[in-house]
Amino acid sequence: MSERRLEAVVIGPGKAGILKVVIGRGRGEFVVDVPSEKLEPSLRLPNSHFVAVVEGRELVRVEAAGRIWLTIQDEIRSVLNTDWDPIGVVAGGINHEYDMYIGRIYSLLLSGASEQAIAEHLRSVEVDRMGLTGASLDQLFKVAAKLLKLQLPRLQRP
């Protein structure tokens, strides 16, 4: 399972030493119990907002560059959902399906990867991870070109 970064807000205390946190937004949001020591003291109050790094439905850590990462994630997600969507789930209203691939795509963009390298990565995801036959390389080059045109902020490590 891959890490995802999602908006989070503390909604209140739970059992002793536990905080109730809403992670995500809209239809994909969920509530989890988080040990208070996983959050710095300034985030332990109700209505404290932060960006959670999650695997599945478990909070792994708080993202230090939270708001910046959400901007990066939203920009890349938009291209993936609009121009890629190899399994056609976005039309069905599922817009976070490809979030697990955003970190690697961002790393490729930061490293100065070529259009071809990004297209080959997308094809690899389609074939090796999704079990599909893969879109045409011409289509994947178009997606890669759009990704390369994004003006994304730079982070040290996605």
Characterization of the model:
The protein has 158 residues and is an alpha+beta fold. It has 2 domains: 3-62, OB fold (Dihydrolipoamide Acetyltransferase, E2P); 66-149. The chain has 4 helices and 5 strands; from the N terminus they run βββββαααα. Helix 1 (66-84) packs across helix 2 (102-110). It is elongated. The two termini are 16 Å apart. The model has no long low-confidence stretch (mean pLDDT 90).
Strand ordering within the main sheet: 3-2-1-4-5
- In helices, the fraction of residues equals 25-40%
Low-confidence stretches: none
Give the helix tally: 4
Q: Mean of the pLDDT scores? A: 90
What is the CA-CA span between the terminal residues?
16 Å
Biggest sheet features: 5 strands, antiparallel
**Count of extended strands:** 5
Radius of gyration: 17 Å
Strand content: 15-25%
Q: What number of domains?
A: 2
Class inferred from helices and paired strands: alpha+beta
- Name the shape in a single word: elongated
H and E string: EEEEEHHHH
Using brief descriptors, characterize the structure shown.
single chain; 158 residues; alpha+beta; OB fold (Dihydrolipoamide Acetyltransferase, E2P); 2 domains; 5-stranded antiparallel beta sheet; 4 helices; elongated
Please provide a brief summary of the model.
The chain is α+β, with helices and mostly antiparallel strands.
Give the arrangement of secondary structure elements:
Blueprint lengths: L2 E11 L4 E6 L6 E6 L13 E7 L2 E5 L3 H19 L17 H9 L4 H15 L7 H13 L9
Antiparallel strand pairs: 1-2, 1-4, 2-3, 4-5
Helix pairs in contact: 1-2, 1-4, 3-4
